Structure to design on (333 residues):
């Protein structure tokens, strides 16, 4: 593989240093890839984890002025971000929470500046970041604060895409967050990104109801009749291909999925359990509605597997492949 100024640079953040993120990155770079992978992380963390796993690695420091080159097997290019304290596998330390966010911040800003073509993120631990006194609800929201835009979370696996109207909020808050404005915005972003990023000319979107049986004509809740149905009908009149609201317990069946490009769920645990059952470890988290391309793994930090060599990098591989599919070639000089 030869150097080329059309090769895409992909920023990759390992996430929580005590978890499996560093392991996954090191496993990922054991094979060549048709892009340049830039790991935004602590150099010693990656060196020590490679030694712990017994994986060969040649570490190089990222040079933004050098031509992009394709990823070679065993070569790790790092944009260094220093940890606050040395990490121990499996042991969370809130002192490193700011390091985790700093690495995400640097990689995200690199995408905004055009230095990187896309961002791929490893798993973070929201709890330990909050324990450090930092208000943090998730990658998706944090990246959106840096880039602007209206983030819409969508997970995808073979044969199924599920987007969410609400993301990381308590179940007791979901109903009040399902507003005309929010729902209209999310549906428009989902439709637009399916067209522009996935090349689907007329996306078919199936929309779940919020309540059991999609409200049972108002007897089990009013959100469908008062909010979801009017928004869907209005957007249909503007040319969007929408079906629903439908009961969430029957949406995920061939009758509907065989004729859908995406399912829109009202809240996190309405749609994602089905997707993860279908494709856990082989799914990807895609953030729509942002001015950058961002994909992520579909799992958490798996602290008990960190440093053991047992972590499965399949989801990270899929996240990288998806980022490359969604990303135009790296701009030439």
């Amino acid at each position: 593989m030869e150097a080329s100024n059309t090769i895409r640079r992909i920023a990759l953040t390992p996430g929580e240093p005590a978890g499996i993120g560093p392991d996954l990155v090191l496993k990922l770079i054991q094979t060549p890839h048709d892009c340049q992978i830039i790991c935004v992380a602590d150099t010693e963390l990656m060196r020590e984890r490679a030694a712990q796993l017994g994986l060969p690695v040649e570490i190089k420091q990222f040079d933004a002025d050098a031509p992009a080159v394709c990823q070679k097997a065993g070569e790790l290019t790092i944009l260094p971000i220093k940890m606050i304290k040395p990490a121990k596998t499996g042991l969370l330390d809130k002192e490193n929470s700011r390091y985790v966010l700093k690495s995400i911040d640097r990689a995200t800003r690199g995408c905004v500046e055009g230095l990187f073509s896309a961002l791929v993120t490893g798993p973070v631990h929201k709890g330990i970041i909050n324990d450090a006194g930092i208000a943090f609800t998730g990658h998706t929201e944090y990246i959106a604060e840096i880039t602007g835009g209206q983030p819409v979370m969508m997970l995808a696996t073979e044969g199924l895409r599920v987007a969410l109207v609400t993301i990381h909020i308590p179940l007791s808050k979901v109903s009040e967050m399902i507003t005309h404005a929010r729902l209209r915005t999310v549906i428009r972003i989902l439709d637009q990104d399916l067209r522009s990023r996935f090349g689907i000319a007329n996306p078919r979107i199936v929309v779940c109801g919020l309540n059991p049986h999609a409200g049972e004509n108002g007897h089990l809740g009013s959100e469908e009749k008062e909010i979801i149905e009017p928004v869907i009908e209005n957007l249909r009149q503007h040319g969007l291909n929408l079906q629903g609201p439908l009961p969430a317990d029957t949406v995920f069946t061939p009758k509907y999925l065989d004729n859908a490009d995406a399912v829109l769920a009202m809240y996190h645990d309405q749609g994602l359990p089905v997707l993860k059952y279908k494709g856990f470890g082989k799914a990807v988290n895609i953030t729509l509605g942002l001015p950058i391309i961002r994909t992520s793994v579909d799992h958490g930090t798996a602290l008990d597997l960190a440093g053991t060599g047992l972590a499965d990098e399949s989801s990270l591989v899929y996240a990288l492949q998806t980022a490359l599919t969604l990303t135009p070639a790296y701009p030439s000089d």
